[in-house]
Amino acid sequence: MLADVAYWLTQDEYTGVLHTSRRAAGVIVAAAVLSDRVEAGAVVVQRSRVVVLHSTPGTPAGSDVRVGADGGRRARVAVPDVVDGLGREVLAQVVREPGMLPGDVIAGLGVDVRSQVARRLVVAGRAQRRRSWCRRREWVAVARDHDVRPAWTSTGLVVKVARGEPLGAGERFLVQVVASSSLGELAFAGLNRDRLARALGPVDTAWQELLTATVGQLRDMALAR
After folding, report:
1. What is the structure's pLDDT at 145?
2. From the CA atom positions of the chain, what is the Rg in Å?
3. For a disulfide at 110, which of 26, 151, 197, 199, Cβ 3.0-4.6 Å?
4. What number is the average pLDDT over the span 30-54?
5. CA–CA gap between residue 67 and residue 96 (Å, rounded)
């Protein structure tokens, strides 16, 4: 999932030390989590809000998120089967706070979403947990002892950009986000500039408002320093 790729890009894969500020890392991973939901057809990001797609009569049943109340009745949102536990939690959070601007949703999710992604990686056996005396309550996932190459590189995103291979809509979105942050120089260091420029081409329409909101959050944080 794109959220996992984003997670590894934001930190050293063996020590867990962040490559950027904790807030910026949270925003990048939160944006990737929402991107996964867009890819799954579970949300639509508009300029003024993030819309969770509700079920309609005849819609195949997926996993349901039941939150909030409307006239005493629980609101039900049909979630595609490909959305995992973290995805359902994110959708539930968005439904609980309707009408929020996309940037606010990203900022809100960014507070603890990295810890949630880390927990998922560890539980799935794709990483191990690193404990830190100063971050005891936060899950930090790092590469397993027997991993012989950087965990985030194994996702292939940077390799695909380096080789000029076609990118999926979500991958192109993440490349744009990373390039707009302080991570860009680190993640894409030494890459052919023409190939990187091609990878930075226009994103799919479904991702445009999410990209605008994410870049806005990163820019605001940079200006606030």
Report:
1. 85
2. 18
3. 26
4. 91
5. 7
Give the pTM: 0.85
Please state which of the ranges 13-17, 29-33, 78-82, 93-97 shows the lowest mean pLDDT: 78-82
Rounded to a whole number of angstroms, the distance between the first and last alpha carbons of the chain is: 31
Dist CA 214 CA 201 (whole Å): 17
Point out which residues pair with 50 in neighbouring strands.
45
Instruction: Yes or no: say if 30 and 109 are a contact pair by the CB < 8 Å rule.
Output: yes
Say what the pLDDT of residue 94 is: 86
What DSSP assignment string belongs to the chain?
Answer: -HHHHHHHHTB-TTT--BSS-HHHHHHHHHHHHHHHHHHTTSEEE-SS-EEEPPP-TTPPP-EEEEEEEETTEEEEEEE-TT--HHHHHHHHHHHHSTT--HHHHHHHHTTTHHHHHHHHHHHTTSSEE---TTSTTS--EE--TT--S-TTGGG-HHHHHHHT----HHHHHHHHHHHTSTTHHHHTTT--HHHHHHHTSPPPHHHHHHHHHHHHHHHHHHHH-
Q: What phi and psi, each to the nearest 5 degrees, are found at residue 102?
A: -55, -40
* Other CB atoms within 10 Å distance of the CB of residue 165: 13
Query: Is 97's pLDDT higher than 90?
Result: no
